[in-house]
Design a protein that fits this description.
The complex is a heterodimer of chains A (472) and B (304). Chain A is an all-alpha fold. Chain A has two domains: 1-210, Cytochrome c oxidase-like, subunit I domain (Cytochrome C Oxidase, Chain A), CATH 1.20.210.10; 234-462, Cytochrome C Oxidase, Chain A (Up-down Bundle), CATH 1.20.210. Chain A is built from 16 helices and two strands. Chain A is globular and about 85 Å long. The relative contact order of chain A is 0.09. By secondary structure, chain B is mainly α. The longest helix of chain B is centred in the N-terminal third of the chain and has 25 residues, at 9-33. Classes of the chains: A mainly alpha (472), B mainly alpha (304). Chains A and B meet through helix 1, helix 2, helix 4, helix 5 and strand 1 of A and helix 1, helix 2, helix 3 and helix 6 of B.
Chain lengths: 472, 304
Amino acid sequence: MADDSVYEWRAVKGFCLSGLFWGAVSVLIGLFISIQMWKPELNIGPFLTFGRLRAVHTNGLAFGFAVAEIFALSYYMVQRLTRRRLLFPKLAVVQLYIFNAAILVAALSLLAGFTKSKEYAELEWPLSIGVVILWVMFAVNIFGTIIKRKEEQMYITLWYLIATVIGVAVVYIVNNLSIPVSLTKSYSIYAGVNDANVEWWYGHNAVGFVFTTPILAMFYYFLPKSTGLPIFSHRLSIVAFWSLVFAYLWTGAHHLVYTPLPDWIQTVGIAFTMFLIAPSWGSVVNGYYTMGGNWDKMKSNYLTKFFIIGITFYGLQTLQGPTQGLRVVSQLVHYTDWVIGHVHMGTMGWVAMTVGASMYYVIPRIYDTEIYSIKLADTHFWLVLIGQLIFSISMWILGIQQGSMWKAISPDTGSLTYTFMEQVTANYPYWKVRTLGGAIFTVGLCVFAFNIVMTIVQAKKNQASAAAAGGR
Amino acid sequence: MAGSIYKKPILFAIVVTFTVLSGSIVMMLLPMMSDSMHPKLSTLKPYTPLQLAGRDVYQENGCFYCHTQTVRPLKAEVMRYGEYSKAGEFAYDQPFLWGSRRIGPDIAREGGKYNDDWHYKHFNDPRAMFADSNMPAYGWLKDYTLDPQGMEKRMKALSFPCTPADLQALAGKTKLDALVAYMQTLGSAVPRKAEAAMIAQGEKNPLAGNADAISDGRKLFETNCSACHGINAKGGIGPNLENNEWLHARSDETFFSIIANGTTAGQELEGGKKTKGGMPSWHETLDKKKIWSLVSYIRSLKGK
């Protein structure tokens, strides 16, 4: 492998495969809990109840899958963009081992019921410290490599990586501060309304700096790389970057509309959420215009459609999200499955598409081979697309139905039209459709994993036969 | 030229940090410093060790993923759940447990709505109470006893008052006992909404003896009442209604009021009878016609 003397690929490979593994486990858990929704007998206490498995599903995908792929692909991109080897290659490998041990312990601890109970910040304090240590290791390598770079200009991708490193550090540390009672139990240092405000300031920016900025970093790097087309506008990237990084931190309160949080915080949060449409669409438009007159690449280059459909879902996501923040929409859809549909469009549409295509680009290059099968990659694309659409659309319809049934007041009597149980009964057909969508998506993901694994197997075979031919 | 920042990573990182901090300071840090984010109702009490243990059980089982604990100030929501949530109700909640999704109903006003027996039965087998419920069963919680020493540490960590007597009271109690105790604290800092008088004094059941109403009433009874009052109203957690001479001697008005508004322990009913309480109120979920149908159905059971 030609580049091995210049670049450090061990950690990239390790994190790619670790993320794939934890991602597959977490998606299977997601599929299982979607069945628990309409088959409650599958809740087997204490460990396999929905209330515990849901945390394993979300944390597994945010930390086990997304963060692993962020580590992997950031280490790939940062070396290419700085034209140098990772500054601390051994540190990255140590980080890989600690990461996998931490994710395993994290999953078991959540099953055991050790949780801080703040969404996306569930891990108990010793594991939170572990997350911070891993993040510092990541930061040291990213900053170190950038500072010692051999390419003077920092490309857009590096801006987003720097913002990711800083953004996650700030929100994670502040929100996870706790009063420890024992190794497995702590209480938040914040209380009540204030705790809610800190949590959703964090929660929304965990989305911002785990599912948005690093994925945009990949998009800005791998779209031009795989199509051979330069990004349409550098100026637009600058405007979009700074306004995104500025606005994100103001918006968390849109998760707390109509709660006891002071009205002004809700209103300012909603206003900045509306503003956030602009920088989000800055990247969407930049992506579309980069394609320019080369839309035939959607057909001829198998990766292009992943990136373009991915950024399209990002565009839809960033229109739908702000709409949900508006009071008039929030009163109907908040607390319903609409939001579940929304989240999964972002994760199964935007994140899974972009990360998947980025891995298709990276894996053959670092293993010095070709992709095992473009046909399988196409199959993967269509399965995850169809699965996600069935999932999201059924949940949007259901969400509107839930909101409408909850608020329906009979005009004759002036009392509520439906009991809560009558509404629950109406959920079941939709929840079964969601499981179908999830199952199709999972099959797509398995095709993806198979394709990646076979690419690596093929590379090892080629190496072995080349070695034999060389007489070594 | 501003473009040079893209060649200076340290400067770039510093500018990004300040950019990220601007919103964080205005929206998170400054509010934290102000009193408006730390209100406390004068009626709010810290949790007892048993209640806190129950809250911990609620946390460790992720109950907040399916149940919210904040009633929004919206008409239908206040009708369904009760008085909307006040900022000062949560001063002792570390962490807050407002939740983000209602797979089950909001339970901010659950305290006092049902009696303890109802909760035990419901946790043990939710589908025995609501046939279509998808809530997991939590009867296994009764296999775990509480650890008084551990609870003492937890009470201290939160600076909640905790007497030796409080801790002794934990002896032999299980996680299920704790969870039920926690359920009964929910919303207790806010007085329960005064029940609206829904019928005029002396009003008679317009559907008395009506065959359709009796049939509707039977269906309503099966979905809403039989979990406590038993199949065919032969009794369970709630009293037998079939051969209940006291009940059948009551006026339509009293009958209606018991169903519509529920009962609280010690409340004096018609004829000077003191009730044990525990009957939940139904007027939020059942309209007038449905309640009269139930009255017709129950009256039809007399002497069977």
